[in-house]
Amino acid sequence: MKFPRENSLSHTLRVMTFALCIIALVNISFAQTRSGEIKTRDTGTSAQLDTKRINTQSVANAQGPWYYQTPAITCKQLWDWGAWGWETQYDHMSGEWEMRVNQPVPASSFPIANNGSIVELDGGMPAKPELSVTLNTSVAGNVLDSWALGPLNQTDRAVSAIVIRGGNGLNVYTYPNLAIGDNEPLIAPGGATIENVVLCMEPFSVPSSADATITGRALTMTGAGISGARIQLINLATGQTRIVNTNPFGYYTFQQLDVAELYQISISHKRHQFIESHRTFTLDSDLTGLDFVSSSW
Question: What is the pTM assigned to this prediction?
Answer without folding.
Answer: 0.55
